[in-house]
């Protein structure tokens, strides 16, 4: 449970309980909560009927949610723009590799080839073992 700032807190080692004590004022008696609040806020109207604590909590939660949503949207937009600047689409890369006579294969395509090589009756034992080792590498990545 939260305790007011400036409270004296201790752990009772015999019972294992945490204990809190409000600080004593200069005249030797503890201030009440309302007196301390008046001292802290000065001449501000602190009418408890104006807002309930639940209303204030809801308003604060809404403020935090909208701030988080705004930050998230702006960061997603910035991240998306920077990613687009750094990388090219896969279709463009495939076209450039085709111009260089290099065929680019995805991991899925490679795994399908390795499985077909393993299931093929024409493959030797060494080829099947090699296919299994390669397949283990790709499956481990997934």
Automatic annotation (TrEMBL):
Listed under GO biological process in this entry are: protein transport
The domain of life for this entry's organism is: Eukaryota
Q: Which residues form a coiled coil?
A: 49-110
- Residue numbers spanned by region Disordered: 1-43
UniProt keywords (A-Z) are:
Coiled coil, Endoplasmic reticulum, Protein transport, Transport
Biased composition annotated in UniProt, kind: Basic and acidic residues? 16-43
A single GO CC term for this protein reads:
endoplasmic reticulum
Q: Which GO terms describe its molecular function?
A: adenyl-nucleotide exchange factor activity
Q: What is this protein called?
A: SIL1 factor
